[in-house]
Amino acid sequence: MHFEILVEDQSGKSMLDILLPKIIHGQHTFKVYPYKGIGRIPAGLRSSSDPNRRIFLDQLPRLLRGYGKTFAKYPPDYPAVVIVVCDLDDKCLKAFRQELLNLLNRCHPCPETRFCFAVEEGEAWFLGDLDAVKSAYPKAKDTALNAYRIDSICGTWEKLADAVYPGGSAELSKQGWMVVGAEKSEWAKAITPYMDVDRNRSPSFHYFRQKLLDLVDIPV
């Protein structure tokens, strides 16, 4: 099976490029495409923004329609699926999922697609494996790590920054969003190699992993 994986930022790509081989193994192939911010689903499902800006949800209707047409041309023995991975942030999970499903159902033909969410943010998947965080950052502050509640809406990247970044999230925030984004990518590259995909405590990570396993029919 081939996976086309869409994520909202470069740190998500850095993480998934390392995680996917740990989960699906073998003969399966994948490609991860990063975008530049989440944005919103456009009214009428017609984007009015420049595709080169690469705003995730703004471009998603166009992308799914394109995948539907492309996948329809694939031979039966070469199944492919789109995996949409995005941060939930402070959205209602049920309502947001339904909005995305409504979008997908308006694609003709409709590509095989799964929607997965990091609750609240991608850093929740790192914080679901504190051993991995500590392996990557041996001086990480235990008080900050232990204060985090799994998959809570609490400012997740800030919690990780408080544990591993000199001066914490307050100091990192002063550097601006370009630096924050770059630091998030560094966390992904440093922590993900140590992550144990079978023992992660994040429910949203378990959901993502299980969707992949179901698609490739790997028993747990």
Describe the structure in your own words.
By secondary structure, the protein is α/β, with parallel strands linked by helices. It folds into two domains: 2-122 and 199-216, Rossmann fold; 123-194, no CATH class. Helices cover 49% and strands 12% of the residues. The protein contains ten helices and four strands; from the N terminus they run βαβαβαβααααααα. It has helices at residues 10-24, 56-71, 93-105, 123-127, 130-136, 142-147, 156-164, 168-174, 177-191, 203-216, and strands at residues 2-7, 29-34, 80-87, 113-118. The protein has a four-stranded parallel β-sheet with strand order 2-1-3-4, sandwiched between helices. Strand 1 (2-7), helix 1 and strand 2 (29-34) form a beta-alpha-beta unit. Helix 1 runs parallel beside helix 9 and helix 7 (156-164) packs across helix 8 (168-174). It is globular, with a radius of gyration of 18 Å. The two termini are 18 Å apart.
Low-confidence stretches are none
Helix/strand class: alpha/beta
**CATH architecture tag of the largest domain:** 3-Layer(aba) Sandwich
Q: What is the count of β-strands?
A: 4
What average pLDDT do the residues reach?
Answer: 92
What are the secondary-structure elements, in order, as H or E? EHEHEHEHHHHHHH
Short description:
By secondary structure, this protein is an alpha/beta fold. The chain has helices at 10-24, 56-71, 93-105, 123-127, 130-136, 142-147, 156-164, 168-174, 177-191, 203-216; strands at 2-7, 29-34, 80-87, 113-118.
